[in-house]
Design goal:
The complex is a heterodimer of chains A (about 240) and B (about 300).
Chain A: E1 4-15, E2 18-29, E3 33-37, H1 44-51, E4 59-64, E5 67-68, H2 73-79, E6 80-83, H3 95-105, H4 112-121, H5 137-149, E7 155-159, H6 167-184, E8 187-192, H7 195-201, E9 204-209, E10 212-218, H8 219-225, H9 231-241
Parallel strand pairs in A: 3-8, 3-9, 6-7, 7-8
Antiparallel strand pairs in A: 1-2, 1-4, 4-5, 9-10
Chain B: H1 3-17, H2 19-55, H3 77-102, H4 106-110, H5 116-150, H6 156-186, H7 190-213, H8 232-241, H9 246-257, H10 268-286, H11 290-293
Classes of the chains: A alpha/beta (about 240), B mainly alpha (about 300).
């Protein structure tokens, strides 16, 4: 039985001469909430896109839920849930119609009951017949989480999940992430540039700088190394300021 | 339910909910019905004038409509399929593929266990069903109106011809829907995604036939056959460009199927050319790589 939810070895992605992801080697154990930190353009979204099989790596290898992302991408897609940054849906369709579409694409045969269950888990009951065109960013984000977990994935990828949310939306989403991990056992891989979010939700962190992983540790160890209220902030800026090797 | 079926159903649902597409559908159905109504009004007017003339003893000739095929009344439908139907199919096709790129829902779709071929074929199948329903409704109403004009239900032979014309219309419209899907997948901007297939359509419908049939340009917009050049340069150009004008092939095959007395010959070559375009376009569209399906738009 595999104990790693995500492993990468020298995973590299380049767009022509531009190196977006530089030899990423990573191990995220099952049950972790892993936060990948980095500035805009550090390569966080590229990493998620490769791990979710949306992009093919240029070099290196990666396994998600014990399956190679290049060898058997379809099996990887069955095992994962994905919430992109600024998630969008078909605005002329209702919540139920949107979620039914994604559930059926994931192989669920009669998904309506499961959709209602998931909406209940996310405290979003009563909205299933509404069209998404009128929804706020926070409401869309909850539908986004719903579509990502409908098929009970073992690994959930969240790309900047709190981007553009108001404080109340951020708090709700944070609680949801913690709950999905603790109650449903999902391993969560989260991209963010908000250090405060990582402190409140993650169990381990990685810091990406210009495509390279410059720091990887459990949150507990990282914090104990730099005691103080803004310790993660301190680690982040210290690591960021060091010249890339 | 597999990805193909899910995509097909989703496409049908989206087409039903899209305002522009619905408007075009209504206009198309309305025009095809109008075609039969115009035929009926023409028949009534000419017959009443004829009866008056015969009653006044001014003529002993037979009623000019007495020897006309019942399908004569739907001959204008050929033009409506060419003009409005093609535009409707292009809009539906562009929206089908551009939707995911515009709203960035392609990433959500492609992060599911879905193959790009199954996804695109499913979308095409969904559009195919929508087009079939539109054509079916239009032709059913035409059948009823023609039967009313004739005072009796259309016979099996004529009904079969109307069904064959519907199938031919579907092949043409599906080809244009595929053209729309292709530009929806390939264009960098929404405006070019719509503009390019319209330009291609106008070249195919107006420019290509004009090259070989300049002697009778009225045939471009009316259900009358183009005059074939009898030799020389225009004959050569016509032979080269003729098969490329799918709209001309459609007009020719439709004329033969609907027993238009002005069109003679065998419809098979034209039908085969139309089918070839459909198959080639299908192959081109479904071979679109996943990376292209999820590429965003400029601006």
């Amino acid at each position: 039985m595999t104990t790693s939810a995500i492993t990468t070895d020298q995973l590299t992605k380049s767009y022509g001469p531009k190196l977006a992801l530089d030899a990423l080697t990573l191990d995220v154990p099952v049950g972790e909430v892993f936060g990948l930190l980095g500035h805009n353009g550090a390569g966080k979204t590229t990493a998620v896109n490769v791990l979710t099989t949306l992009l093919e790596p240029t070099r290196g290898s990666a396994e998600v839920a014990g399956v190679s992302v290049t060898g058997d991408p379809r099996s990887v897609r069955r095992a994962i849930g994905y919430l992109p940054e600024n998630v969008q849906f078909y605005d002329n369709l209702t919540v139920m119609e949107n979620l039914r579409f994604f559930a059926q694409l994931s192989g669920l045969r009669r998904p309506d009951g499961r959709i209602r269950d998931v909406l209940r888990i996310l405290d979003f009951e009563g909205h299933d017949r509404q069209r998404l065109g009128t929804f706020s960013k926070g409401m869309r984000q909850r539908v986004g989480i719903a579509q990502a977990i409908l098929h009970s994935p073992s690994v959930l990828f969240l790309d900047e999940p709190t981007s553009g949310l108001d404080p109340e939306g951020v708090r709700t989403l944070r609680e949801t992430i913690v709950r999905l991990n603790s109650e449903f056992g999902m391993t969560i891989f989260m991209n963010t540039h908000l250090r405060s979010e990582v402190t409140k939700t993650c169990t381990s962190i990685g810091i990406l700088k210009a495509g390279r992983l410059v720091h990887h540790d459990t949150l507990e160890r990282a914090l104990s190394a730099f005691p103080g209220e803004d310790s993660l902030e301190a680690i982040y800026f210290q690591v960021e300021s060091e010249p890339a090797s | 339910m597999n990805a193909f079926m899910v995509s097909a159903r989703h496409e049908m649902l989206n087409a039903r909910r899209t305002r522009t597409a619905n408007l075009l559908l209504v206009v198309f159905i309305g025009m095809v019905i109008a075609s039969s109504v115009i035929g009926w009004v023409t028949n009534q007017t000419v017959t009443s004038v004829y009866q008056k003339v015969v009653a006044d003893g001014l003529s002993s000739a037979p009623n000019p409509f007495s020897g006309v095929s019942p399908l004569y009344y739907s001959r204008n439908a050929v033009i409506y399929v060419l003009l409005i139907g093609s535009l409707m199919a292009i809009v539906l096709g562009v929206q089908a593929t551009l939707r995911d790129r515009k709203a960035a829902t392609a990433d959500l779709v492609l992060s599911r266990p879905v193959g790009s071929v199954a996804r695109l074929l499913g979308q095409l199948a969904g559009l195919g069903v929508v087009l079939a329903v539109v054509i079916g409704v239009s032709m059913s109403i035409s059948w009823v109106i023609i039967s009313i004009i004739n005072g009796a239900p259309l016979g099996w032979g004529d009904t079969g011809r109307l069904v064959a014309f519907s199938a031919l219309s579907w092949i043409l419209l599906a080809t244009f829907a595929l053209l729309g899907m292709l530009t929806g997948l390939r264009s960098r901007q929404e405006t070019t995604a719509l503009l390019v297939p319209f330009v291609i359509w106008s070249v195919v419908a107006f420019v290509l036939p004009q090259i070989g049939t300049a002697a009778r340009p009225v045939s471009l917009l009316n259900p009358v056959p183009a005059v074939n050049p009898t030799g020389g340069y225009f004959d050569l150009v016509s032979a080269l460009t003729g098969p490329l004008s799918v709209t001309e092939q459609f007009k020719r095959a439709s004329g033969i199927i609907l027993q238009d007395s002005t069109v003679t010959g065998d419809a098979t070559p034209s039908v085969l050319i139309l089918l070839s375009f459909l198959v080639v376009m299908s192959i081109v569209v479904v071979s679109t790589p996943r990376a292209r399906m999820r590429s965003g738009l400029d601006g």
